[in-house]
């Protein structure tokens, strides 16, 4: 459930679409809330939250921090999701305020801002990262709408080379866009980088009644996991299949 944040005028408005006040699924090992940031620097055709991607901020810094302060002792962590949270220029100072309440912070990101993510990691402001591996380089623009695989690549390198925090990698599959060969490429790429975390393959869950960003229809072809490259280096887990 996403709860709208009431707008108060004459205060700084965050690009926050809403808040999910409670989740036990989105932050491994933590009871958390999710802060949904409006706006995104990608345009993935399968995105089932176009209202968030195209939306604007509806809340203030004070409102969100008041919400978090009231839930101290009830929640362990805060998930920063979207949209794309790193698109917000004030995210660093916002995280510092969140951490002053002793919350752990998880960032969900598409990885297009590697230098900013590096800064957050170097300053110890993140505890967990979930990185979306949208597509192989040869399909990256087709799937995401932007020709910036090199930016994502730098973020993935950064996370694979650091040992300070845990991170997971995940790919959403719509079989009109990605097939078993594409996912096998990603698995091989993660092998070559000596990735050792969890890799999640997420099934597209939209239908013909719920519009996506590019109005993709429901999948007609089933994804065949038996065709995937095998690996012993990390865990490959299915979600929503």
Characterize the structure shown.
The protein has 241 residues and is of the alpha/beta class. The protein has helices at 50-53, 61-70, 91-99, 114-122, 140-144, 149-161, 180-192, and strands at residues 13-14, 16-23, 32-37, 59-60, 77-82, 104-109, 128-132, 166-173, 198-203, 235-239. The chain is built from seven helices and ten strands. The strands form two sheets. The chain has an eight-stranded mixed beta sheet, covered by helices on one side. Strand 8 (166-173), helix 7 and strand 9 (198-203) form a beta-alpha-beta unit. The protein is globular.
Describe the SSE topology:
Blueprint: E1 13-14, E2 16-23, E3 32-37, H1 50-53, E4 59-60, H2 61-70, E5 77-82, H3 91-99, E6 104-109, H4 114-122, E7 128-132, H5 140-144, H6 149-161, E8 166-173, H7 180-192, E9 198-203, E10 235-239
Parallel strand pairs: 3-5, 5-6, 6-7, 7-8, 8-9, 9-10
Antiparallel strand pairs: 1-4, 2-3
Helix pairs in contact: 4-6
